[in-house]
Amino acid sequence: MELAEHKLFKSFQRFKTFKSFVRSKTKKVNIQRLFHFLFLCSYCLVVPSGVSAQTTVRIAFNGFGGTAPLFVGQEAGIFKKQGLNLELVFIPGGSLSLQALIGKSLDLLMTGGPPVINAYLQGAKIKIIAGVTNLLPYNFVVGTGIRSSEQIRGKKIGISRFGSNTDYVVRLALKQFALAPNEVQIIQVGGSQARLVALTSGAIQATVLSPEEALVAQKMGFSVLLDFIEKGIEFPHVNFVAREDYLETQPQTVRVLIRAYLESVRYYKTHRPESVKKIMALSKLPERQMAEVVYDGSLRATPDDGKPTLKGMEVVLDAAAKENPKAKFLTVQQLLDLKFLP
Fold first, then answer.
1. For residue 131, what are the β-bridge partners?
2. Which residues contact 1 (CB under 8 A, 6 or more apart)?
3. What three-state secondary structure class fits 136?
4. Which SS3 state, helix, strand or coil, does residue 130 take?
5. Per-residue confidence at 18, pLDDT binned at 50, 70, 90?
6. Number of domains within the chain
7. Cα–Cα distance measured from residue 319 to residue 322, given in angstroms and rounded to the nearest whole number
């Protein structure tokens, strides 16, 4: 732009007025200079209003559950059409990824309700701005030789990190088994792949996995002792989370992103072949049938309107209050900022 203005200024210096420029060398009109002059004029007038740079939004996620619509929408050009360039980053564990969000290494985060509540209680200025998946999509997977809940007693159970979704779900499973957390050994292992490796090596005897991961585990000879998916329990499994300062300074970017995301959800739900293919690629599933099972389950868990589950948030908040007295004075509405939803 500055170069164009400089050239334009030089043109005016050489030719005091447009009239003198046209009349110079009347018998031999310099078409090349005239074209150059007009091009510079049109460049200076048109380019600033006609070109808009893509806005990059850095988003982290903890697992591939619930993220498929985002990837499918990106490949379909939905976000690009809205002037957005998504930089998607995998960070295992909600607690760890929230540290990155709070530290401003991320713009947005896709994570579960439990780590959000824990971070908020510790003073984090964050809000849930949309719901991605609203049902509990976990299976409690056990090692070979375990056939009943009673055999879980005293065993090592792997989670990603304390305060994460997996931590909450393991404790919920123990409640279903009529076991107290102190009757087992809950161990921080890391992401789902690390937990599956630990289960294979015998370092842990049980863990919780997403549907696609549980299918892989079953192929390896492990068993599902409890299927939360069949129970249809409302749970804030994945949500869009943002810092309050980002929402204040970038409201239009957030609004456009949520609009594009909801369009991506519609595309995901109406383009089954593409969506199943993407699930296979993301989860590295060996069989298409396995990806189709995951896809079918996601249709019910993924809200069309982007609203998070208030009921699920209440349940998680009640559970947090038993561990942290501060949670008793916290309401679900304090955790939400849904003004960016259409």
1. 239
2. 44, 47, 48
3. coil
4. strand
5. very low
6. 3
7. 5
- The reply to whether 318 and 260 lie within a common domain is yes
With CA atoms as reference, report the closest residue to 93 among 60, 62, 128.
Answer: 62
Rounded mean pLDDT, 153-163: 94
CATH code, 63: 3.40.190.10
Mean of the pLDDT values across residues 128-137?
95
- For residues 220 and 99, state if they share a domain: no
Token duo for residue 119: 């971070």
In the block, which residue shows the tokens 């170069």? 3
**What's the full length of the chain, in residues?**
342
- 8 Å CB contact between 191 and 199: no
For residue range 275-294, list pLDDT tens digits in order.
999 999 998 888 898 899 88
Any domain includes 342: no
**Model confidence pLDDT, tens digit, residues 79-93:** 999 999 999 999 988
Q: Strand pairing partners for 61?
A: 90, 110
Over its C-alpha atoms, the chain yields an Rg (Å, rounded) of 27
Whether residue 28 has pLDDT greater than 80: no
pTM, two decimals, is 0.76
Domain hosting 292: range is 55-136+234-335
Alpha-carbon span 155 to 320, nearest angstrom: 24
Rounded to whole angstroms, the Cα distance separating 18 from 202 reads 84
